[in-house]
Amino acid sequence: MWLLIIAIIVAAIVYDYYITHQPYPSAELKGKSVLITGCDTGFGRMTAQKLDTEGDFQVFAACLTQKGVDELKESGSPNLVPVLLDVTSESSIKAAVEIINEKSPDGLWAIVNNAGLLRGGLLETTTYQDWKLTFEVNVFGMAMITKALIPSLRKVKNSRVVNISSIAGRTAMAATSAYSASKFAVQALSDSLRRELHDWGIQVVIIQPGIMKTPLYDTPFEKTVDQLWDQYPEDAKEAYGKEFVAKSFQKSKDLVTKIAGDPNQVVDALCSVVKAKTPPHRKSVGKDAPFWILLSFLPSSVGDFILKSLNKGNVPLGLQKKK
């Protein structure tokens, strides 16, 4: 029985690797239009700039800030069209969609839902505001901008929606509950949407990056240990102790530094599924991706043991007192 389980796990990982690295024939994109959200920095900006230099098609680069819009206007060709877009605002989505529909009346070839944020922390210490913002950006914003543009996607044969999820949507680590929950929701949203839009010829693709060297993964470490500690409720301070917080912070930072991959891998993956005639349903990216995928297939007790070992020797103060 165990041999069968191991064989299935290995086969699943090999298949995932094959899908990730399989080359796909390119479609004819001349004259078509693509929307990418979250283009102020990171994957979004890099993908918009790369697509702008690689093809004779229109790229709508949606930015949260006017600064992002201005910077892209200066660096791009006339085919790169920066647009202000706050995916958490209904009025902002409506205004952006009006611009896109006006400049691309024949419809959209692709939406790349890249806008996202990461708020780390234990459930016990993560604020309601951080949970709310995480889901508003990572899930609700993705759903609403896609919903608004489905009629535009229907106009173009073989169009697609490309959703950025994460390996955190396959395996959830401690102190990432808000982020991982949002990325699991992205997986579910994408699977459901793929089945809803299949008969219309609209494809839905999930990109699952591992840990990458981008501003997204810098965010949890922008605060100091003292700043994090000051945000802890008094009962949490008593339960965990500042030493536990400091060690956890450093271990997480060291892990990201050690295994974080090149963001250009994700940019290449995004460009490949935008340009592919028939893209895969899922594409994982990053040298650490096979590890997280393996954990997602293992029995939970085994996965828990492996992840616990990453924080070995770091015991909350409240548990030390009980020993």
Assembly state of the chains shown: single chain
Strand content: 5-15%
Largest sheet: 7 strands, parallel
CATH architecture: 3-Layer(aba) Sandwich
User: What is the radius of gyration?
Assistant: 21 Å
Low-confidence stretches: none
Average pLDDT level: 90
Q: Identify the strand order in the major beta sheet.
A: 3-2-1-4-5-6-7
Question: Number of folding domains?
Answer: 1
Class computed from helices, strands and strand pairing? alpha/beta
DSSP, total strands: 7
Instruction: Output the helix-strand order.
Output: HEHEHEHEHEHEHHHHHEHHH
Could you give the distance between the termini? 39 Å
CATH superfamily: NAD(P)-binding Rossmann-like Domain
The helix content, as a percent range, equals: 55-70%
- Give the CATH class: Alpha Beta
Explain briefly what this protein structure is.
The protein has 323 residues and is of the alpha/beta class.
Structure description:
- This protein is an alpha/beta fold.
- The chain has a single domain (22-219, 262-299), classed as 3-Layer(aba) Sandwich (Rossmann fold), CATH 3.40.50.720.
- Helices cover 56% and strands 11% of the residues.
- Strands 3-2-1-4-5-6-7 form a seven-stranded parallel β-sheet, with helices on both faces.
- Helix 1 (2-21) packs antiparallel against helix 12, helix 2 (42-54) packs across helix 11 and helix 5 (128-154) packs parallel to helix 6 (177-197).
- The longest helix has 27 residues, at 128-154.
- The model has no long low-confidence stretch (mean pLDDT 90).
